[in-house]
User: Fold these one by one.
Assistant:
Number 1:
Amino acid sequence: MSVELSVRRRLGAFQLDAAFTCGAGLTAIFGRSGAGKTSVINMIAGLIKPDRGRIAVDGRVLFDSDQRIDVPPHDRQIGYVFQEDRLFPHLSVRQNLLFGRWFNRRRVSSTSLESVVALLGLEPLLPRRPSTLSGGEKQRVAIGRALLARPRILLMDEPLASLDSARKGEIMPAIERLRDEGRIPILYVSHALDEVARLADTLVLMTDGRVAATGRVDDVLSRLDLPPLTGRYEAGSILRVRITGQDERFALTTLTFPGGTLRVPRIDRPIGAELRVRLHARDIAISTKPPEALSVLNVLKGRITGIATDSGPFAELTLAIGPAIILARITKLSRETLGLHDGQEVYALVKSVALDPRAEAVNERG
Amino acid sequence: MFELTPVEAEALALSLRVACWAVAASLPLGIFVAFALTRIEFPGRSIVSGLVHLPLVLPPVVTGYALLLLFGRHGPLGAWLEASFDVVVAFRWTGAAIASAVMGFPLMVRAIRLSLESVDRRLEAAAHTLGANRVWTFLTVTLPLTLPGILAGAILAFAKSLGEFGATITFVSNIPGETRTLPNAIYTFTQVPGGEQEALRLCLIAVALSMAALLASEIMARFLGRRTQPDVG
């Protein structure tokens, strides 16, 4: 376990009472604004002190109110990428990058300036001042600066929030590369579900200062009780798929996952490439019979494993497609008309347009 | 060509020496006090702040007399300085420097304080997360970003010192070659018949000196500003 956390703190009328553990890879702390996400990582960094609790990273206790341990921030070996870049305006990009490395020079690490500069494409920026950089460039430098401090864990507080989508596209691949290198666990705060779906391995869902759910991102997002927290319109599930075929004539790509295949508009990635796709619950229709004469390409046979009907006109279903779970949202009327019930075999009609792995394809280019 | 008479040269050199020493000696303390007043919560903070600012509102003669009582050879600080370091400041140029430093101190602290308050605390938090403890953060982040204010404070104190008259003449008198700074010299010439011409020449020197100090600060501020402020346009 790389992070064990259990903290309480009262901030005015707001009560933060959060506990979770997370391991390697990228863990997203997800929730609406004001859910206490940033407070949690500020506590890990030592910038806010919990009233009570315990925080350990990599087995090293950073805070323990019972044992009166409170390691000062500069001793915590934490890399922190803030929402705003917080680059030092009086230093050049190179000096900014090397700032943390100097203070942590005795720490053994394979992270070199060259490797970070290469990873984030910073070479042309090195002699410049932060004030001359674009938002995306600044945030890349900030990530590099945090990495060069040789941290045990990287904290990222909505690093993309202040950027437009083009700039996001510039940074997401860098974060993915970091995650896939797997050398350093990442805690990533976000309120954007698309970022979380694309980047996270593990999800910590926070609401009103509490942790509502923790688990693998695909599991948590497929749970029926959580759409009210994640945002109903955005509700959906994630499938980890592999490219198994390219149809040149119709420009379609075949994606395979344990449980079935999907055909989607062509993705320019080699056969065998693994990626994640997201199925919005609102884009899945249900049929009780094998559908015929239909323009929808993707029909998956599955079984209903849960129905939730407490949300206005809609009913949310979880469907088991082999070992994979997907979410579907239909009207209560349809549910009645079709007489849907738990355990029933049904066909899920996935509109091709709902599969949007273009964002994933940026990987290769980036 | 404007040539200095030996008397003028002596007063000018003395004024510059007094001002430089006053600023150099009080600057570290000024930075520390400004930092303490903006960043450290301690009991009696408003009293310290009041004490620092007192010379700004007191009649300079009062400040000078208080210095005389404290630093005179029989005063508590004066006796201690003489006993411990064999240093006498009463009626010496060093005493003039002390008077200048005390009078300029509030201006210096104010300027540094304003600059410190405008430093983004979030940058300091970022430095902490990168492994810099409080001292290093102060030296590598806070201090460089406060430089424009420190510079402004130093220039203000320097200019104040060049013009300091009341506290100086009360504390260390008006001894040629020892404590007769430019203002003291001007005062002396206005007190003797036929000294108007000399007084005017010294006034022109004082104006030139002050202008030079202001210009120097302007140039340095622009240089520092280019380094630390976001470029516009």
Number 2:
Amino acid sequence: MADIVIDTNILADLLAQYYEDNVRDEGRFEDKGSLNKDLVRALNTILKWHLQANIEDESSSFPGLVVASSLAFVEIARQFDEIANRCFTVEQFAAFIDQPPEWFFISPVDSAIFPHLCNLPREIELPNGSIRSIEWADAIHIATAMSRGEGCLLAITDWTMKEVDVVRERII
Amino acid sequence: MRTRFFLPLEVINFFKQRELRNDLLNYDAMAVCSIADLLDVCEAYKKGKLDISREDLHKNFEAFNTGPVKEGFVFIADLDQDKLSSALFDIDNEVVVDLWGEAADRNISPRRSIRYLTLRITDDSVWWSDEVYREMLEYHIAQGK
């Protein structure tokens, strides 16, 4: 099993497809926007398993969950009109949070991420030698992924984050 | 027992010196700490504001959990799915009317949004008084933010 923690931009694109393209009915994401091919393949594996109710089939191993920090939802809310872009409504957004699909988990912002947050560097050195700070929100998404165990993958739109050692091997 | 806002400076002071104010130690009050302020300790550490080692940072985190939190002096208000669902929206008669504008505001920092959401009095499940939220707002005014 490998949970996939997604960041705010990917969550926004996932929600847009979920409500616009009837992922609920067809159970299949497409590679567009910030959802790349590898990520979509992994998402669809998770969806397929849950939609086919493989829970009762002991030979089919649990593929994990799609996970977003509650911070990702707050970030969407802070710029709702711009991010939702009429692809989903406030009511749909609220409904998703209230009752997410079985393949999705909203990870709390709680003290469990504290040790992982502390272990992240404050800055990263990019290949061109420049130094960049890790944004607080990015750090929370990374710490959330780290708090979910070694196998957990991370889907993040800011590719400079792959310069962080603990992130590189998890990025999808 | 009175409930009050656990000031960001108090969180920092605990991590620096393991100190709590007397009103908590005397059981005159219980403090409610937003998870945003606890996580902010990591930022303070990385910026060199704590003047302690990484090892002590982790030790003091454990001490915070096994001391003030476990003993009931301080409660950490997290942002989990239930809290997010009830606090992020204006709800009228169980119907979502809109986003809650106080937190859903790009002109404030994300950590301040988290602070507002975690401390917001939403329904009967929030057991602390509205003094906590009011004191948090006063803190922001005092900080000139």
Number 3:
Amino acid sequence: MWDSGQHRKRRQDEKLEMNKVWLAILLAFTAILPFISSSYMMHIAVMTGVAIIVAHGLNILMGFTGQVSLGHAAFVAVGAYTSAILTSKAGVSFWLALPLSGVAAAVLGLIVAGPSLRLKKLYLAIATLGYAFIVNEVLVYWESLTNGTAGIVVPQVSFFGYALDTGHKYYYLVYTLVILLSFIAYNLSQSKLGRALMAVRDSEEAAQSLGIGLVKYKVLAFVISAFYAGIAGSLYAHFITVIAPTSFTVMLSIEYVFMLVVGGMGHVWGAVLGAILVTLLPEGIRLFIRFLPGWLDIADLQQFVYGLIVIVFLIFEPDGLYARWLKIKAYLERFPLSPRKQKGERVWRRWR
Amino acid sequence: MLMQQIVSGLALGSVYALVALGFIIIYKATEVLNFAQGDMMMFCAFINYSLLINGSISVFSTILITLMFGAALGFILERGILRPMIGRPLFATVLVTMGVGICLRAIAGVIWGHQAKAVPEILSITPIQVLPGVPVSPFHLAIFFSTIAIVAFLSVFFQYTRAGTAMRAVSMHHLASFLMGIRVRRIFSMTWVISGFVGALGGMLIAPLTFLNPDLGWIGLNAFPAAVLGGFGSIPGAIVGGLMMGVCENIAGGYLPEGIKNVFAWIVLILVLMIRPEGFFGTYEEKKV
Amino acid sequence: MPCDGNVTLFGRWCPEYSNRNSGAELTMIPAAPVLSADENREREFGVLKVESIEAYYGKLKVLIGVSLELTSGQLVAVIGANGAGKSTLLKTIMGINQAAHGIIEFMGQRIEEKDPDQITRLGISMVPEGRWIFSAMTVQENLNLGSVPLSDKRKIKEQLDLVYSVFPRLKDRSKQKAGLLSGGEQQMLAIGRGLMAKPKLLMLDEPSLGLSPLLIREIFRITKEIHGNGIPVLLIEQNMSMSMKIATYVYVMETGRMRLSGLPEKILADQDVRQFYLGEGKGRYVSRKDRWRGRMS
């Protein structure tokens, strides 16, 4: 029962070993996925990868720093349009446009962060919703640059003359970035910066009293988060090849938030899980709905089932999948023993 | 021209005010931001439409049934979906209301389809001269006065009845209300019922102004700026915020380039929040460390 | 005779409920009173019985096998230092925290699974630490909210008059916003609000917190008066000396456990208690000179 220090150290090492093994399996699976899947599945996989990147960004903002954003689609849109305009109109190479689109989104993040610093939860949520509406409206009406509602045709990417024109090829580009950005997000969560962000989330007053500057860290969170979204937007644009303002609606922003909550806010793995689940969900529903009579409007039914699953999921798993996974893991670790009965304080903490 | 825009702006603003009122009543008591408010409104508007098209009952009972339906919808949603979320993370709860909105929109799509429908006019929309130089349509007048009526009714209810006082108490301090013996969960239900009722009224009033389709629910989002302008706390704030938003939007639509009208409310919102982060009528609760 | 329906502030005046210190009334033996159903239950089961409850804050165990009993007519004081778990005990009784183990019985009825509003309706009024008054409402509205468990309008009016007669200051300010009251007045309002429900048990959580000595004395006098009028009181206090004077039975809590219990005399006689809570006893006093030399006397 009482571990000696050495004992505990060894157990931690074992755990670390196990984690490494799991990670290796996951990476190997990611690497060989294209060899065993159709182009339709590849399409979904690429979209999932894009979603994972955005979810990571949003997680840094919402999960780590506690700043709600209901307008993340706007950052994605700015990234996508920057990349599209640079490559199609200015003839810039994709490899330069990709980081630039991240930067462009980050600049928007900087602009948005300024007025948002003083806003608290609810007001911030609504203000970010407002930014998203405004950005979308700008995309529609700034026709000379964005072609308005008609949208822009985006050239495909080539890698030293090798065209990444199919999902199978594009997949590797996306997932290289996914792994890289996931790694950065994970390290961020373990770093001093990450801890400062979490301090801001947990209590602004306490963080301030520890000498953590709110302005700096909130702005930083917005900028990093927007950068992620911008990169994802660029990847999205060059994969879909036609983008229009209607691709980046409020619904998309809300979907990103769904991802975080479904996966488990504040955990890097939570963001990944949530992004995968929420992106796969409509596809799963589509598969399922084929068996139903045709007089039901497929799109509506799909929406309905989607909403219903989200509701049911949140009712039973409001802390997200990752939290459930942690519970399962804790249960397995002490398997023969029954789980500890948690019946202490009623959860009324949020009730002032 | 300007006068007419102000008048129709006031009518539109009244509807915004009603939706904002729905938001605020729920938010104050339960701290949940109900993203489904607009969709509840849309759904009730469709119910009203179906009843009117059917035409077998009088207009008056149509209105009555729609209002009852709105209240029942609020009750069912709270009991079935929001009640299990009590005590859960707030954000998950808010997302649940978004899910509810998606579902309502989908159901409306299945039942009534996505074609925009023109709602039969109960009152004429063509303006008549009420005051010299100010043409007002009877329908706009009806919107305006029914909003005033419901606000007056709610104010009296909150100020002078036992249930209303209990609701105010719940909005101030949940635990203290528990200790008073107030059945807080029942109060939560009541707020949803009232919101549903107000939403039904809003739906009936806005449907003839625009066309009716399942996307009407998004208008609910336009009421957010109104609610925030009013400080997201007080009923008069919501009303003033809503009316202001309606008038601003109409005038902006008349004089500013196209494209600005749709987001004008949001631009105003962000400008206001930059100056006063708590809205015009809001009070900022300084958090104790 | 005092007990034959002589209605006073809080119902029938029954000297047997009254404090042991008010000796004069105690000598009067009441004629067999006609008891209501509630009073019968009170006789049979006692008012409150807490049996070895445990409570957690997250993973932290804050109550460890705490037991407590309160029979009718008592003023029980629970004393202890900061963080001993006194407030948690009250919150657990009230259902604000849920007990992980143990039994809580109120007049023969198990209440440990119930919600705070149900418990309030059963007849326990809690005056929380920090008062939790509705500061944006008027004094009158606050008091009205206290009477939510009562349904009879006449009873509410009666109760309101009673509260106003105990706290005449509140009557003067009945139309004012409660947030504008002074600390002492707010405490009185909180107690008055608790009394509005016509409670069968009043629980006070540190009523003297943050008040001036004069007001503390006033609050204790009122507490004693309430008890003297037949309402059992469970008092949580840090102010040892004052609560000893009015309590009929005392529990001492320490780091989540009940350390001691007994009549105030017994507690006062305890060496440790004298030492820790009253700052008396041998060996605690270190003279200045000795401290200067760095040694204990």
Number 4:
Amino acid sequence: MRSIAVASGKGGTGKTTVAVNLARVMPGPVSVMDCDVEEPNVHLFLSTESRQTHSVGIPVPRIDTNKCTVCGECARFCEFNALGDMRSKIVVFNELCHGCGGCTRVCPENAITEVQRVIGEVDQGVSAQDIRVITGRLNVGEALSPPVIRAVRRYKAEGMVIVDAPPGTACPFAAAVRGSDLVVLVTEPTPFGIHDLGLAAETLDAMKLPFGVVINRSGEGDEGVEEVCRRHGVPLLARIPEDRRIAEAYSRGELVVDALPQYREEFLKLYRSITDMLNPNGDES
Amino acid sequence: MKVLITAEGKDLDAAVDPRFGRAAYFLVVDVEKTEILQVVDNGAGRAAAQGAGVQAAQTAAGLGVNGLLTGHCGPKAFSALQAAGVKIYTGATGTVREAVDQFRKGELTAADGADVRGHW
């Protein structure tokens, strides 16, 4: 199993468009992991009829008040203020807990056990195009997406995996791209797009992950993107032109390569460039 | 009675900080004498990534105050303070001295729930 993460610093640049169309033109077996768990949308383009779902939880502390001496060690340890030492008792705020398990370990009385709190789910099924789709969903009102993203990424899939990452450059982004063989950064050639591409590129350099760039809505402003590529020594893998028909197909939930076959070649070129980056010596592995 | 008052400065003429968890300073005040007993810098609470209200409630519990005079109080801070037996008086305005006066005249009533949502 090899994986390619499709990511971007700025939101709305076309990550999902690139991910699903790339999956469509690749030889199988291929899977798409939707790691944009706050608003997963891959299923709009690759719908699956029957799905298997399992819930994702994080361990949160439960304090046995018969054993607890209110020494406060747990509250002092918790960086996230999920536990508060109120002198007469310890209060627990599960929604602030990141599930690190530290309080359980530092408690000298062994008064803390861990219970699972469900924060989201992962489902998987196979689309009509014979693409396996694994989708993570963070429950509404929850703030901590990385555990759900990691649960999606733990899924074992055959062949090539395309990961649709959440936007930004913070923890959810890192959780989605970590462990990938290659990252494709999608950008638009606008000042915002170019600025956030720079941030994403710096993050990937720090994570020591190889990456290339795709310009979406290519046309005016491409030089700025090319400059970022030069600065980071990474290739420009493809350009998807500014074309209203692409946006119209997207709005109907259609794949660009099916609705507008003239763009199939650009996605095939992207696939070939990715294959070249993954196999620099030309060997198939 | 010993209360904690959230303030933007360190003395009685400082403005009341309307926030609890992310207040600049916590002043421990003897309300009968209108006298500051202790000043606590809440720099750590202001910088907390999350749960500033819980952290502040823990500080209040540790200082052994009986009441809190502040502008607003969110739900987590409220339930934490309740566990510590600290009464919460929201709606304090003006300077710390004025808040003490408001309290002594009975103009501030003990809250029976959070008056704002978290992150207001």
